[in-house]
Amino acid sequence: MSYENRLEDGLMRSDAWSLVSSQRPAGQIAQRTLGGLQQLVYMEDLANIAVLDTLLRQKDRTGNIHAIPYYYYTQPDGSLGRTKVKKVKKKNREKFIAEKGAVEILKVVVLKDNDCSVGRSENDSRALKMVEKIRHIHPQTYRMAVRFVKDLETAPFRSFFREELRFTEQDYLRMMDDARYISEALQSNCRAGMLHLDADPDAFLRGEEIRDSYNYCE
Question: Are the C-beta atoms of residues 182 and 65 closer than 8 Å to each other?
Answer without folding.
Answer: no
